[in-house]
Design goal:
This protein is mainly alpha-helical and 182 residues long. It folds into 2 domains: 40 residues, no CATH class; 120 residues, no CATH class. Helices cover 62% and strands 12% of the residues. The chain contains 6 helices and 3 strands. It has a 3-stranded antiparallel sheet with strand order 1-3-2, with helices on one face. Helix 3 packs antiparallel against helix 5 and helix 4 crosses helix 5. The relative contact order is 0.12.
Length: 182
């Protein structure tokens, strides 16, 4: 099976990310280590097929900063909520697997949404249906249909924030249209 040639422009973000991960893993960002990491990254990209990451070509810093602050606050509050549930309710805490269909069909946006959700204590992505852009989450303390809808709403709000930060112009326009419609 022949592999479709991917341009350097499309591979560059992946290569840069792999180099940064290499430096972080070795805790050494010296030029020599980063050059060696670049060689390893190029070898990995050439030897193993990784689907190209389609970037929307935009990153809104003014949206990213409040998103990051809210994210840190959510992690902090959810940590205490999970601790409370574990100490007070223990094994009586009810859990559920909840399907959350996402707006975006882009792999990058689905992945970013899944990672943000998984970093917040109390929920974890257990499955991703790439064909329908649906995340299946394990939710903690889900006892009613209202709790399920709250979890879905939280996930879709996180996805909306990520779309505003790095989504395509079409996704941002669709999101804005969705908020205008009753």
């Amino acid at each position: 099976m022949s592999r479709r040639r991917v341009s350097l422009r499309q591979e560059l973000p992946l290569l840069v990310w792999l180099i940064v991960v290499w430096g972080a893993l070795w805790q050494d960002f010296s030029p020599g280590n980063l050059v060696f990491g670049a060689l390893i990254a190029i070898a990995v990209v050439r030897m193993f097929y990784l689907p190209p990451v389609e970037l929307g070509g935009r990153f809104n810093v003014l949206r990213a900063i409040p998103f990051a602050v809210i994210f840190v606050g959510r992690v902090f509050l959810a940590s205490f909520e999970v601790m409370y549930q574990a100490v007070v309710r223990g094994p009586r805490v009810s859990n559920s697997i909840v399907a959350v269909p996402l707006r975006s069909r882009q792999d990058l946006m689905v992945t970013a949404t899944g990672h943000v959700i998984s970093l917040i204590p109390g929920s974890l992505v257990v499955e991703v249906d790439r064909s329908t852009s649906t995340l299946y989450l394990h939710g903690l303390n889900i006892e009613s249909a209202a709790d399920i809808e709250n979890l879905r709403s939280d996930v879709r709000n996180i996805e909306a924030g990520l779309i505003r930060i790095m989504g395509t112009k079409e996704e941002v326009a669709a999101l804005n249209q969705e908020q205008v419609a009753p």
